[in-house]
Structure formats: structure tokens, C-alpha cells
Amino acid sequence: MAYAEISRIPKPQVLSFHVLIRRLEVPTAKRILKLGLPKGSLQESTVELFRRAGIRINSSDRSYFPYCDDEEIEVMLIRSQEMGKYVQDGLFDAGITGQDWILETSANVKQICELVYGKSGFKPVRWVLAVPESSKIRTIKDLQGKSVATELVSYVKKYFSQRKVKARVEYSWGATEAKAGILVDAIVELTETGRSLKANQLRILEEILSSTTRFIANKTAWNDPWKREKMENIAILLKGALAAEGMVGLKMNLKESDLPKIMKLLPSLKRPTVSPLTLSGWMALEVVVEENVVKKMIPDLKRAGAEGIIEYPLNKLIA
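Request: output the structure for the sequence above.
Response:
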């Protein structure tokens, strides 16, 4: 080969150490899930649920942008009433809100899962139609031509229309219970226990909606493989945290001969994990049970031969 031809062969590029380091340090685009959490009555219980799920969220009373220890999640606090629309419009990839506000705003969102928890318990909340105890109104039909105050205006209007009752439904900015019988003829109000209604001398005519908390997603975000997996992971953890509510684990050692007696004391639907110990004739047993039965169960287990009984709390229970 001629020298001129050899000289035209491209030489391999030699990069300096500093250039190589700079190339290695170029950051890749970090994926972020924009998550809306409820500000207000559901805030504290929602943050606690996420904590038990392993996601820690910290915020001050005045901050709408709390810190999240998962760097792939960006959190903003917003009222539940507005959550559905913001998720629908893509301002959030996902959010936590009530089924009632999804229906009220007709939000077109993907419902990932139901999360049965509230401000003060782990059961659905109810929207009820109520009147003063002294009122002559006995059924919804008696509200023909009457006035009703509520926050849930659109849904209540549809509810009355479906029952062919023409009533004037107006938005209530607060203190709804105080208005019944004075400013309006009836109210539709949210209740978990009904105690507040009784304290204000109100009588429930009927329940118009039972609602639970929902984990929702923007439909475009749901079709993004990375975001979908991230949301599904969060849903698994949140449902696991709820499933563990009111449950505890029990560990104990026992003689093999005592196993039949021990099994009779355990809930019939619970299948314990049993494994042999290094000590011949002994075994270890582990089971998950309802916390409210443990105080009676442990003394009975002890009398039946169980030793080294340990009770421990559960953060998550993944089925």
C-alpha cells in the first residue's frame, strides 16, 4: 500500500481523561411523576397512609409543595374538589381524591384503585339528605319547590332530576348544617358517623351517595410505560398499607405435640407458617391475625404450650 493511501486512513480518536469524565457525568433526563394529594380534611390521613406504605411526605402548614423522599415523585397539595379536573387536564399525572368529587366534576380519569380510608376511619363516607328534626318534610318528594344547600351541587341536581323532584339546589360555602330550617329547607351534607348531624338536631331522610377515596391517573400518563409502572407500584404499596390496618403478626415456639391445640386457637381462615427448629421436637409458628383478638389469644396460646410469643406491628400486607 502506498504511503499516501496509508495516511488517508482515519486515526482512532484519543480522548483525554478529563473529557471522558465529563462525558460520564452528563446527567440523563430524570423521570418525574407529578402527584396531587388532598389538602384539608384528608391530608393528615393520606400522609400517614403514604408513610406506612414506605413513602415519606413532609410539609409545613403553609406549604403546598411538600418534600417527598422518593426523588421520582413531585407532590403538590390541592383541594380534593379540584383534583379530578387537574388530573384530567394533565397538570397532575396522578392524584388522590374522593369518588364523590370525581362524579361532581365529571372528571374523565383512569381510576387505578379504591382506597377505603377517610378523615377519621376506614369506611366509606356518606352524603345524606337531611332536614331539621321538627320539619314536616318526610321524603324527598316533599322537597318539590323547596331549597337545598350543599357543596355537591351538580350531583345533587342530577339526583333530584332522576327522581322528578324540582328543587332549588344552591352552593353552600360552609356551615351547611346551620342553614337547615333557617336559610334553606334541607341540606345534603357529608358525614362519616352522623354524630354532627344529631348534635345539630337534624334528621336524615336518605343517603344519596356512598363514597370512598380513589387513586386516579391522567389517561395519557397511564399509557406511558414508566409512569404506569410507577403508579402501579404506588397502588400496591398503598393497598398493602391499608390491608395491614388492624392486623399484627405473631411468632411463637412450640412442641410438635402441641401443634393441634395451638391450631384450634388460631382463626380458621389463617394458615400459619410452620418451620422446624434445630432443637428436636420443636417448631416455630408465625401467623397474621386481627389485633383486636390478640389480647385474648395470647394467654390461651401460652396455656396451650406456646413459648417465646412475639407480637409485632405490620406496615404492609401484600396479598
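The CA atoms of residues 119 and 308 lie 38 Å apart.
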